[in-house]
């Protein structure tokens, strides 16, 4: 059971922070504050939390960062060192967690004696609700205090929660870029191709759903289909020729087809 | 309503042929025969059709191809010209349809006066059932006879059926390679990365499901997330460095990240 009296302050008000703050509020945590570089962003998340019965303090100043038991830093990865450098003296008693998949735990070392990572492996878009019960959260802590708190928060809102080292998380995050960001980019390129020819790209949706659904029961290596999988170099060459006026897509088509061909030759 | 007395003969006994033959049998068509280059493959599909109450003739000889009202040629794209060259004189009265996404209708011109295309846009794996009600089928015919028959068969078993020219189908098929084969390859590469580090790749499944599900309500351009989307070149560079021992994945990571960065800069 989570300790419902814990105060949580968020540093960052982006997609991950917003979804996580609302979920923690729903699980009984009290959101003490929201910091963002701009008051507009901080206030937007505070308002959203107001809608679920919370009244956090919004601020754009680290000096006014509301004191809490747990600080969750959820900012762009390359902004993390700046946050650590600016970390205020009055907030060094709690547990400080960052949410970045590809950043080592030690980056937030300077903020408190107890620090760690709470990395929910999921794709968060502002306008799309995410079913947290289907998300695995990976946690790490520099000591038992930090690790227990990270685990407690993760268990409270996510379907699964497990320990993973910084090195393992780096691999995981890289794999997630392939499985999520790059697969979505494949959808985007397919949409571009069809939109340029006035074909409704939404006819691809059943194909996309089937492809993604299949991987739950079939290893993606075994589930592969298509011209490169069949070793059908004539079709691959024809597609590459048809993409002659779009060198970017042609290069991507070529590289990925060769990568598939190599695995099934 | 389909004409339930129509006889259908299949040339080819692969994934598409198998799923389609079973579905047509279920919709009341009679499967007269199955040709394959090997008797083993022809017999395997005949046996499967026997399980749904049909008794087609299996053959590996064009001279013994069972006469039918409709011939469906579903073979590797580059084998299509050989099939057309070998087409037997006693099978020139029916409607001949091929199922290839990337092949022009005219490739089967020599087989009959009535010919066309029945292209179900879906990914078919032998061991995985496919919900045909969620598949769109694209049809084309050289005349009204062929087009009507293609449409009738498509409507009988697929959720949606629409007319599309050979040129449009070529674009569609290429888009499908991106949306399906290449996105699946991204899953495969992610699995390889995790398996090499003894992390269970199935922890990616919720992420994959969410990414694919999101595109139903959000254009993939708007649904994109991740380091390249955020313009976070530091993370992109860190991932590329971590892939130094895997030049193939490094090159793919680089090319796709640059492609994403270009779209959101």
Task: Write up what this structure looks like.
- 2 copies of one chain form a homodimer.
- Chain A has helices at 15-26, 39-50, 80-85, 144-157, 166-195, 205-214, 220-223, 233-242, 247-264, and strands at residues 7-11, 30-35, 57-59, 70-73, 95-98, 114-121, 136-141, 160-163.
- Chain A is an alpha/beta fold and 265 residues long.
- The N and C termini of chain A lie far apart (53 Å).
- The mean pLDDT of chain A is 94.
- Chains A and B meet through helix 5, helix 6, helix 7, helix 8 and helix 9 of A and helix 5, helix 6, helix 7, helix 8 and helix 9 of B.
Notable features of this structure?
elongated, 265 residues, eight-stranded mixed β-sheet, homodimer, 8 strands, alpha/beta
Brief rundown of the structure:
The structure is a homodimer of 265-residue chains. With 265 residues, the first copy, chain A, is an alpha/beta fold. Chain A has helices at 15-26, 39-50, 80-85, 144-157, 166-195, 205-214, 220-223, 233-242, 247-264; strands at residues 7-11, 30-35, 57-59, 70-73, 95-98, 114-121, 136-141, 160-163.
């Amino acid at each position: 059971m989570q300790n419902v009296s814990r105060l949580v302050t968020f540093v960052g008000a982006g997609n991950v922070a917003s979804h996580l703050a609302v979920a923690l509020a729903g699980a009984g945590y009290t959101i003490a504050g929201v910091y963002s570089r701009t008051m507009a962003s901080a206030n937007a998340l505070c308002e959203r939390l107001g809608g679920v019965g919370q009244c956090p303090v919004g601020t754009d100043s680290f000096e006014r960062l509301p004191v809490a038991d747990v600080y969750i830093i959820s900012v762009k990865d390359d902004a993390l060192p700046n946050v650590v450098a600016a970390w205020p003296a009055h907030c060094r008693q709690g547990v400080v967690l960052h949410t970045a998949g590809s950043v080592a735990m030690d980056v937030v070392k300077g903020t408190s004696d107890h620090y760690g990572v709470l990395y929910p492996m999921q794709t968060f878009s502002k306008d799309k609700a995410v079913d947290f019960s289907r998300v695995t959260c990976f946690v790490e802590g520099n000591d038992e205090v930090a690790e227990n708190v990270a685990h407690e928060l993760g268990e409270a809102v996510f379907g699964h929660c497990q320990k993973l080292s910084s090195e393992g998380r780096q691999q995981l995050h890289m794999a997630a870029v392939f499985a999520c960001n790059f697969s979505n980019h494949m959808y985007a390129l397919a949409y571009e191709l069809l939109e340029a020819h006035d074909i409704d790209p939404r006819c691809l949706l059943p194909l996309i759903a089937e492809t993604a659904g299949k991987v739950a029961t079939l290893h993606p290596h075994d589930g592969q289909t298509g011209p490169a999988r069949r070793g059908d170099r004539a079709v691959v060459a024809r597609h590459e020729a048809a993409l002659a006026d779009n060198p970017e897509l042609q290069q991507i088509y070529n590289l990925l087809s060769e990568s598939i061909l190599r695995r099934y030759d």
